[in-house]
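This part of the workshop introduces the protein records we will be handling. Each record describes a single protein and holds just a pair of labelled lines. Instead of coordinates, the fold is spelled out as a row of discrete tokens. To make this concrete, we reproduce a full record directly below:
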Amino acid sequence: MKLTKYLSILFLTGLQLVCYGQTKSVNPQLQKKAEAFTQKIIHLITQKDYAALNQLTTKKVYCSLCFETAPEKNYFVGKDAFYQKHVDTIFNKELLERLNRNETKFSFDGSDPGFKDRTYIVLYTTQRRNEFGDGHEGAQFVFWLKEEKGAFKLSGIETIP
């Protein structure tokens, strides 16, 4: 009986250490800076100021929304193609209105080696839970941000779900 008790305590202690090690505290100033950056991106898209947007964007942009069917290799497009072919279709009037509600969540995302193209993500709630009926899970629009030389750059967009 003592062995079971000790193993249980050891397991719970180990679980707490693992869970604690997985969390990263969010710096409120960094969060404000990231959210202000995405608001600037939204404003520049609304104004169709692609020259300014070009300066604030990585060379390639992750854009699952740019393709009707999954491409063979990946969802990355060059930033010029992103702004010339896709941005007006994706950022329609309805989406821009929903983004301007400014319901955001911020997350550090640089620890996942599979996603070296983003350091942070800012999620905008575009459809609230149960907004379209009971059981509707809601949706979020995600901005990928890459930190380069102490400044943010837009590196991708996607939606969840």
